[in-house]
User: What shape does this take?
Amino acid sequence: MIQNYNKITKVLAASLDLSVEELVRCYNRATVADMAALCELMCLGFGVVEKLSPEIIAWRYFNFSKNVSDIFVMRYQGQLIGAVGAEPIIVKVGDKEYQGVRAADIVVHPEHGKRGIGAWMNLHLQHTFPIVMAMGSNEKSDTMVRRLFQPMNCRNHFKILFSIKNYLSVRGWPPVLINLISPMAALSLSLIRKSRLTALPHDYALSLSDNTEQLVSFFSSPDYIPRESNIVLRSAEYCRWRYDLNPKSSFITLYLHHENQLIGYAVIKNSNSVIRKDFQLMDWDFLSQYRNEKNLRIIFSAAINYSLENSAEALCVLASDSLSRTSLRQAGFSHRALDDGFFLFAKDDVARDVLDDQKWFLSFCDTDEAL
Amino acid sequence: MSSEKQHITVPALLHLVEDLLNIDQDSLTIDTRLINVPAWDSMGVLLLMAEMDERFSITLNEAALANLRSTADIVNVVRKAGLLTE
Assistant: This one.
């Protein structure tokens, strides 16, 4: 489809009574001055007001100090008629890195729908960036996304999703009720639980905080070596942005200390739903010499206990490294594969491994917390 | 772009639209309402616009696109351009 970019741009420009140059000029990054119009456009297009407050959009897409954003808008006859988020991602393919974008939140003003504007905005991103990814698609956009991007196989290779939904709900039952159902089942469950959750050793200490301030010293410690993994490089600044400044959700950070030294952490996303409490284990790491199965089990067990104490109905986690996967299983998480939509476009000059069913996931893990 | 405008029959035009939308052959009739065709989305519109321009030198502007509600409307666009073989 990208091969037809010039032809399609020409006909779309003509349909809007614009020249090609004028059309391209109409499509550029939003500025802070566009915020109000952008929110209005998104509410018109999506009709989901509560998830699209200016605060959310600002946090997700805008850098106020530089007055730049990662959201492209289409201006036509003095109003915004379309927008698409284009969050920057660094994609590693083999030993090369590419600056790509993740297309999200594509919206077209209802009065200008079915005119090709949404598809062209995506095509223009593909024309501009070497790699464009899209995650999931709704019924409305599915056929368009499938024609513009290559659907990728997620079943076996993407991050592995663990959940302890059943584990938590069983544990949440009153012991009297379990005993009434089956004393033997109660006994079995209690044995299973005990074997899976790891108690805090006497020389360890756990503390909780609603911010990640302690991670400043953690990441600056000479004993901290970043994981050799394909996740986004963690730093105190990154965690502060992702968790402390995130207006969308609230997080709790578990700090694990050994002999008064902070050796590891885990971040849990609290649920703000009034319907059900599903927590998510977002992030964890250890100083390099403490990065082992025993300590991972301790922090995962602490996360489970925190979830239980706060009446969570489920605690989910996505893991991409084998050490974490093993430790998660041992802590009682059950595995289920992610089989959601993941779509990809890569220009011809990008190494084809990025589209290879057996290799592509190496380039993309941990690009989106929403997974 | 082809310099010579092509003429087309109604069945051939419907097949052309089916190809553009990547839907089964003969799934469209002369009175199919486009709102009922899932593939008639932003991408489908763009592809039709490009094909109309290249094959028939027809420019579909905003007003023309707004009036495309059924396959009959697409046929009429080509008919008005004098390119339909009845």
